[in-house]
Amino acid sequence: MAEDLHLVETELDSRSVFDGALLKVRKDTVRLPNGESSTREYIRHLGAVVIIPLLPDGRMVFERQFRYPLRRVILELPAGKIDPGEDILVTGQRELREETGYEADHWRHLGVTHPCVGYSDERIEIFLASGLRFAGEQALDHNEFIEIVQLTHDEAAAAVREGAITDGKTVTALYWAEKVAREGW
Amino acid sequence: MAEDLHLVETELDSRSVFDGALLKVRKDTVRLPNGESSTREYIRHLGAVVIIPLLPDGRMVFERQFRYPLRRVILELPAGKIDPGEDILVTGQRELREETGYEADHWRHLGVTHPCVGYSDERIEIFLASGLRFAGEQALDHNEFIEIVQLTHDEAAAAVREGAITDGKTVTALYWAEKVAREGW
Questions:
Q1: Which residues in chain A touch residue B116, judged by CB atoms under 8 angstroms apart?
Q2: What pairing do the DSSP bridges indicate for beta strands B24-31 and B10-19?
Q3: DSSP secondary-structure letter at B137?
Q4: What separation in angstroms does the CA of A134 have from each of A100, B9, B149?
Q5: Contact (CB<8Å) A167/B70
Q6: A144 is catalytic
């Protein structure tokens, strides 16, 4: 927006400073709104999806997964990275089937969230998946270990309150899920 | 928990692979639950706080800030990084004063969120700040440019629905703020 020129930073130079198997880090030189220059380091990410899988009885399907950066098991909604060029709905369907064994008759795109605006360009697309059918065993990647848990809205809210759900994409998706369920969003 | 041994990954080796001004990246070798080994790349982060600043009229204080990784202005709650060894309440008070010009009589710690469980150990401590008084001009860092916006709970919810609020820590904090306001959490 034209009226945001007092906030906008402009790229002067951009280079890759770490090119890992998972993480790609760039370091850019930028022009600040006051005309001075500064540097910005950030992760480049292909984006991801998070899914709210709604069972016919109203419960949602969660996962328990060890998240190594935090050295703990995290209770979270199913999610996964978008493959290069992949349609986000296909990502959602693929990840739900692989990680939980479920397929869904109805898919609704709710919105998008940016988990880490300070140092990553990652976006996470939020889907509501309903009309769930168990299609068979999980099809996990070679180095993925995931346990399935089913929670009602009230159980999920209690888990947030008690600190048992802390994952940002999951609480953000629960915000949407409650609005859809209770206010008809 | 002992019953989580089928999920837990154990560190075999850890090294720094990128040591930037902002980002610190490590690459670890881990033992998987099935006994095989794999590698994990992740950001080391000192943690942050996010603040829900509640005005006497019920509105909340938000910020508009250009977030370079996303190349856009983001509407978000005040937040900032914890300085090494800093008490998290002090971080909250400092960031609120510096970024918005407000001070608060009452501070309540609500919970913690992990914004990026897949590739960062960052935690964000969530505070509710009430009894707000405008104490004077913002005291922004040299390269910070922030605009202040005040929104009611309903305006904030509408902004989430319309995609004007996408920031993960902000939606997570709004989830808490609504529970506190409407269900007495």
A1: 69, 115-116, 120, 122, 168
A2: antiparallel
A3: S
A4: 8, 28, 46
A5: no
A6: yes
Q: Helices A153-161 and B168-183, interaxial angle, to 10°? A: 100
Give the integer Cα–Cα distance in Å for B110 and A114. Answer: 22
Q: CA of B171: which chain A residue's CA is closest?
A: A172
List of chain B residues whose C-beta atoms are within 8 Å of the C-beta of residue A78: none
Give, to the nearest 10 degrees, the angle between helix B153-161 and helix B168-183: 140
Helix, coil or strand: residue A59:
coil
When scoring B7, B34, B82, B148 by the number of chain A Cβ atoms within 10 A, the one with the most, hence best to mutate, is: B7
B145: phi then psi, degrees, rounded to nearest 5: -135, 110
Structure token pair of residue A112? 């998008």
CA distance B160 to chain A (A): 9
With contacts defined as CB-CB under 8 Å, which chain B residues touch A166? Answer: 111-114, 123
Q: Name the residue of chain A whose CA is nearest to B114's CA.
A: A167
- Percentage of chain A lying above the pLDDT 70 cut: 99
Tell me B54's DSSP state.
Answer: B
ipTM of the complex: 0.97
Q: Tens-of-pLDDT digits for all 185 residues of chain B?
A: 568 989 999 999 999 999 999 999 999 999 999 999 999 999 999 999 999 999 999 999 999 999 999 999 999 999 999 999 999 999 999 999 999 999 999 999 999 999 999 999 999 999 999 999 999 888 888 888 999 999 999 999 999 999 999 999 999 999 999 999 999 99
